[in-house]
Amino acid sequence: MIVLSGLAKRYGEVIALAGIDATIEGQIIGLLGPNGAGKSTLLKCLLGLISFEGSATVNGLPAGTHGAAIRDRVGYMPEHESFLPGMSAVELCAYAAELSGLPRVEAMQRAHAALYYAGVEDKRYQPVDSYSTGLRQRVKLAQALVHDPELLFLDEPTNGLEPRARDEMLELIRELPARRGCAIVLSTHLLPDVERVCDHAVIMDRGRVRFAGTLDELRARETGAVELAIEVRAEAATLAAALVAAGASCEVVSPVALHVASLPDSPKIDAHLVFATAKACGVQVRGIASRRETVEAAFLRVLAEPTA
Amino acid sequence: MSGTIHDLGYQRYTGARRPTSARWRVIVRHQLTTAWRTWWRFKSAFGLAVIISFIAGGLLYLASDKLIRSLGSGSIAVTFADGVIPMAMTWYHRAAFLATLTITASVVAGDLQSGAFTLYFARSVRPRDYVLGKLGGLAILTAILTFAGPLLLAGLRLGLCESTEELVATLPVLGKVAILGAIATIVYTVVPLGFSALVTDRRYALAVWAAYYLVLGSMALLAGLVANHGLAALDLPSALERITLALFDVQFVRGKHADIPLATAIASLSIHVVVALGILGWRVRSVRTGGVGGSG
Q1: Which residue, of A110, B56, B233, B264, has the greatest Cβ tally within 10 A?
Q2: What is the dihedral angle through the alpha carbons of B159, B160, B166, B172, rounded to the nearest 10 degrees?
Q3: A109/A77 Cα distance (integer angstroms)
Q4: What is the ipTM of this complex?
Q5: Which string of b and e fits B35-61 if b means at least 16 CB within 10 Å?
Q6: What would the pLDDT profile of B239-272 be if each residue is shown by its tens digit?
Q7: Which residue has the higher pLDDT, B203 or A290?
Q8: Angle CA(B227)–CA(B232)–CA(B233) in degrees, nearest 5?
Q9: Is A244 left (phi over 0), alpha (psi -120 to 50) or beta?
């Protein structure tokens, strides 16, 4: 979907993008990174808004030479307000669709459909200026969707939303690939949002892509193993000792709980092995669950890793 | 508001898209629509222009045969009708100034303030499409006041001619009105639009333009009267009036009048327009990417 090859951008002495090579695929991709990581510059490059060195293609179109064609096929939901004063939501969306090249009648039809999808149907004739933050975010999503893009860039879509509105917005985002056939690049600082809706992640830091892959790959990157959280009736230490003997890494959390992970170059620890070991040493297992690293922890870990 | 997701039988759009080069027309239409929407934006200036047309038209009809003066050795007689049109033009220019206060002088600053540039430039709109669209839409609105109105009067003037000879002799008035209308349209479109691109707050943009036009203009006119006549050309209405006088060869009564050299008046208007276009281009190019990727 997005292929970057030697993508570099400098602003004077400041290196915004330091020769990125990456292939970014997925249905909902979280674009993560601290401030100044280069996310904004990357988005501008991908939209063909600024010149750059190297190459970047979006859905097969080179961003350096086909920026306008890309922007016709890409929707962008900005973080900040981008409305025209006095316009209603339906007028704004229809205007946005026409600016993306749709004929007038089609633009109006799609504006109604996009607003309906975003849940603004009952207030779509009111001026956007009078909307609450939640409704404004929905209108921003609708204007990004209205010209039927193949790829959506969402910039902090849940910013300023109260919990319920945030849930609804994330639900809309999660449903988009299946219902609209578009992929999404979600740029956000809210890592729980990424954990909830994204299947892929791209982590940027100081102009470099530090990680690009699935969330599972991100979590399993360090040990290559899935951790298990085990609850026992008693004698967690006994089970831990037996599992360590079987080649696992164990941490006894309490007399009735322990965390287990595979060690590199050791047999994979799974539920079957845990049950068999517990039975052998006479410990009753009451619960077993996969214990996954959070995206936040993985993000911090990736940033802490030394740069190659 | 519910959390239900609706689709309305969604199907991907597979039809043709308008070429990028045609996007400016969408902006022109939008500019016209929004300007016409409320009574105070364009309708107030339009109403003023209609009143001017009625009064001037009535004067033309009632007093077309009244002599206001003779020129040179008396071989050319200037009737009241010949004076009404240039006089009316100064009033049309006032209507155009009113429109700049309600629309033009805050356009770019308003777009900056509302974040509208992101709406435009995250799409396939190019800076030149934006500039062309805004200039086109606002020029049409201004032309209704400064071009169409005077042209209507010129048509009426021709219609009141009593003989073919008079009609032929009066025919050049159409061309003169068209030239003046075009100049006034350009000036009252481009210059305030340039001012609207100077600052990022629409109220300040409006204040700066009004101060320049009214206060600095009056000071320039005063300086022109007491010191150097050329300085008065900085006053846009005076510069336009000088070109009107040159074209119609009519001296109509005015309280304060500086004898601006024609070349200075033309140069002043040209410089105003060029500088305004420069500011407009600079601002639009510089903010093109500003709204994308706001999260850092």
Answers
A1: B233
A2: -50
A3: 20
A4: 0.86
A5: beeeeebbbbbbebbeebbeebbebbe
A6: 999 999 888 876 654 555 668 899 999 999 999 9
A7: B203
A8: 140
A9: alpha
pLDDT tens readout for residues A142-180: 999 999 999 999 998 998 888 999 999 999 999 999 888
pTM, to two decimals: 0.83
Cα separations in angstroms, A169 against A200, A294, B3, B59: 19, 21, 8, 65
| φ, ψ of residue B35 in degrees (nearest 5) | -65, -35
| Contact check, Cβ <8 Å, B10/A49 | no
What residues form DSSP beta bridges with A22?
Answer: A4
A117–chain B Cβ distance below 8 A for any pair: yes
CATH no. of A227-292: 3.30.70
- What is the three-class DSSP state of B214? helix
Q: Are residues A84 and B119, on separate chains, in Cβ contact within 8 Å?
A: yes
Q: Cβ A82–B4 below 8 Å, yes or no?
A: no
Average pLDDT value for residue range B69-86: 62
Percent residues over pLDDT 70 in chain B: 86
How many residues would you count in chain A? 308
Of the candidates A120, A197, A166, A153, the one whose C-alpha atom is nearest the C-alpha of residue B4 is A120
Nearest to A78 among B20, B118, B124 (CB): B118
- What is the edge-to-edge ordering of all strands in the sheet holding A285-291? A248-254, A257-262, A227-232, A285-291
- A193/B contact by beta carbon, under 8 A: no
Mutate to test the interface with B, among A99, A126, A133, A155 (most CBs of B within 10 A): A99
The correct CATH number of A2-219 out of 1.10.10.10, 1.10.150.530, 3.40.47.10, 3.40.50.300 is: 3.40.50.300
What integer best gives the mean pLDDT of chain A? 88
Cβ neighbours of residue B180 under 8 Å, at least 6 residues apart? Answer: B89, B150, B240, B243, B244, B247
Predicted local confidence at residue B186, as pLDDT = 97
Tens digit of pLDDT for each residue in B42-56? Answer: 999 999 999 999 999
The tokens of A229 are what? 């959280």
Domain ranges of chain A: 2-219, 227-292
Distance CA A45, CA A203 (A): 17
